[in-house]
Amino acid sequence: MSENLPPCPKCTCAYTYEMNTLVVCPECGHEWVPGEGDQAADSEERVVKDAVGNVLRDGDSVTVVKALKVKGSPSGIKAGTKVRSIRLIDGVDGHDIDCKIDGFGAMQLKSSVVKKA
């Protein structure tokens, strides 16, 4: 056992112990991999902003600010289309909003093409 274990990042308890590859806090029960705690905190605090700089959160309503082409659809999504109840995700190619759009169904959008409604 190592005597130089880090304190718990959640409750700052100094009595942490090793269990296999994890470090465990006996007070709050938090488990983490040493050295990866800072990266996990950064990913939890990820901020997604819309085209004009407003911070977006799960459940917000947004408006599309520019016309978008949709594969398999003769008409795309028009500017001004309102999208309700968005969900923020870590998507592919910068698509960080998961939503349902009336007439198109479920799709992913980039936060750079919407503004908070």
What this model shows, in words?
By secondary structure, the protein is mainly beta. It has 2 domains: 1-38, N-terminal domain of TfIIb, CATH 2.20.25.10; 62-116, SH3 Domains (SH3 type barrels, Roll). The chain has 1 helix and 11 strands, in the order βββαββββββββ. It has one helix at 37-44, and strands spanning 17-19, 22-24, 31-32, 48-49, 55-56, 62-64, 82-83, 87-88, 95-101, 105-110, 114-116. It has a 3-stranded antiparallel beta sheet with strand order 1-2-3, with no helix packed on it. A 3-stranded antiparallel beta sheet has the order 7-6-11, with no helix packed on it. A 3-stranded antiparallel beta sheet has the order 8-9-10, with no helix packed on it. It is elongated, with a radius of gyration of 21 Å. It starts with 16 loop residues before the first strand and ends with a strand. Pfam families: YjdM, Zn_Ribbon_YjdM. This is Alkylphosphonate utilization protein. Residues 48-117 form the Protein YjdM C-terminal domain. Belongs to the YjdM family. It comes from Streptomyces mesophilus.
